[in-house]
User: Fold this.
Amino acid sequence: MQKNFLKTNRGWFLGLAVGVAAAVLFPQVVRVRFVWNLLTLILVWAIVGMGWNVIGGYCGQVSNGHSLFYGLGAYTVGLAAYKFKLSPWVSIWIGVLISMTVAFFVGKPLLRLKGHVFAISTMALSECARIIFINWKWGGGATGVYIFTKNANEWAFMQFKNPLNYYYLFLVFALAVLLLIKYLDKSKFFYYLRTIKGNETAAESVGIDTAAYKLRAYMLSAAIVSIGGSLYAQFILYIDPSMLMTLNVSMMIVLTAVMGGVGTVMGPILGAIALTTISEYTRVYLGRFGGLDMVLYGVLVIIIVLYCPGGIVSLLGRRLKFGARRGKA
Amino acid sequence: MGMFMQALFEGVINGSTLALVAMGIALVWGVMGILSFSQGEFLMIAMFCSFYLNLYFGFDPIVSLPFCMAVMFVIGIAIYKLIISRALRGPVLSQRLITFALSMVLINMALLLFSGSFKTIPKVMISGSIDLGFMVLSKQKIVPFIISVCVAGFMFWFLNKTRMGKAIRAVSMNKTAAGLVGINPEKTYAIAFGLSAAIAGAAGCALTYFYYIYPNVGTNFQLFGFIAVVMGGFGSIPGAFFGGLIMGVADAYTGVYMNPAFKYVGICVVFLLLVQFRPKGLFGGK
Amino acid sequence: MDHILVIEQVTKRFGGLVANEDISFAVTTGEIVGVVGPNGAGKTTLFNLISGEFAPTQGTVVFCGTDITAMKAHVICQRGIGRTFQIPQSLDDMMVYENVLVGALCKRKNMEEALAHVDEVLALCGMTELKTVYAGKLNVPQKKRLEIARAMATDPKLLLLDETMAGLTATERKDAVSLIRKINATGVSILTIEHNMDVVMSVSNRVVVLVSGRVLLVGTPEEVTSHPDVIAAYLGGGANQDGQ
Assistant:
């Protein structure tokens, strides 16, 4: 199976090798700290976007509340380091477990809902989580927590003086998630998710336990987004609910996947590149004119989503399998 | 008792604003199937409109009301023609994201033009309060409530009695059939979107009677507006109105009898339970 | 005789409306049974009850000796009942072979095995040339064929066909009939809803006549066509030869 996976995707892996080589060399050539930060953020958003894509893109259950899992991932590593001096190498996986557990329990009732009602419910849920975290004194409350561990080993505690180390480490994580998604892309699991997205009645009629598969997709999605949140917290070494768990974050997660191409392997990565680049550059160059950066950002988002509903993937003219044509929300 | 009644009063007042926002959301949802994230921002624009009419011309918000509604109607139609009509050709998910990006643009445009400071209208025509002994009714808060009820009444009349209103309802029930009997969907959509903006405009204008005006004001009403619409049975406009009122009252009571910080949590939990047991809303049948 | 499907006194009410009342009949292994009846006789409701779309109000459905009455649709499919829908429920964003693949994955974990099975089923249904066409681009007869292919890919022991002939031309009908015979020849029992009397009579071993939710008669095509009640209730009552 593994052999076949490599063999049948030879072209893709060749492209990936070139891409990775470029990703490794680029920050060595462009030695600008701003660009390094940008690249690191792109990787975080790519991971988060790929995570959302599992439930929202492949399975068609459009969650507008994934900031919940982003926040859970970030808070777990943050509080683990701050309260228990626990290395993120361990706490990332604890965060994954917590997110998956939460997803399991809330997913069961939520995933029975459809369309806009599902979206609104997920929004309400992450809003609840935000307010609970704001009022959670032990967890830092509204002011948040700086999670820098003094005198700790850089690698053991994942806090680097050299920003490039973050970048290369996150690149490994992003690559791992990408390979997982690529592997699943042609698996029974993802074919079943696409079937559920396409037509639930048809899915039931070919023996798919739609409720169970939706829940599995939701949990996997939560796990990946949680990793993204953990890495982000580790990168900025600070956590607070109004930064991590807002509707804005939830919508950005959706936007990353949609802009790149819903339900495609490469979509979220392309989306993350486009979206993060636009947002960081507008912030730096226009941020001082209170609000102008966000106006431009919003206008660009509208234009891209409006004129490229299939995402950037469809622009690249690749054979668009399961593209975002008539994405059912 | 006094506290109970006072909370009811405050709840109904806030609920009436929410009810109008929810009606706008329900109208857009029912007619074009879009979950509109920019409804709260229409309310915000109307609030600024009312504020500047007061600042430069000394208009009372009651006087500004028809003007604000007209402006919002035109803005609504313009946004429909410019953006929404194009978005309707794309996937549902893109439509939702576009209205979200639009709300971002509108908020930040307001921030850019009017700054983020909190503004209020210094002096309004009707003020003072009625003391009933066990509770105090602020006249300033009663005005927006009356305006909301009137606007809602006007909307019901419009949707049930006029030709255009009937066309809008027909489209929201069955698009294909409406097309077959010769209703122009494009025009209907545009009017419906304009109306939804105008209703939010009325709510915003009325709200300036006692509320702060700032660019982010609309976001407070957004999620609750959605919840109200679902509670009322999505797409149902009377349902949305009553859903909004109920949300307002629930909000006030949870604020009084629970830790105010957790009132949102209370409401969201009630909502999540509700959709489990009545997925079609309180008034949406079985 | 060996019965693959036994329906005993099944009743389904929707509120006050009685869609199926006290229906009993059985399908023998290897048989093709036609279900006929005027519009609104409760044919599709009966299919939905068998396939687990919803549960009957009363009565039992027994498949291969097991009571499947309260089982969910996906479990019933896994147990060996495949079905098609009157209005094709194709997955328009997927290619034809992928539509069939999701059926093939029902009983297979391994992708290569499943893909091999897809090729067999496509060949059986004569859809090999359409393999990489998106299902959304197919015309109605092709979509109906795809429905059959997808259901067949789940390796059913019993296939429920819901009006696979409606809206087809005479030649297309002939192809469909020969497909049904071919499927039956592979050992699959078939229960088929059909409006077109000629087709039902030529293809079925036995026919169940439903009228207003009740079984009027079960018998061979000859018995059914010559029965005065059937002529009165169905053929006589403004015979609707081509369905909707």
In short: The beta strands of chain A are 145-146, 238-239. Chain A touches chain C through 26 residues (CB under 8 Å). Residues 34-245 of chain A form one domain.
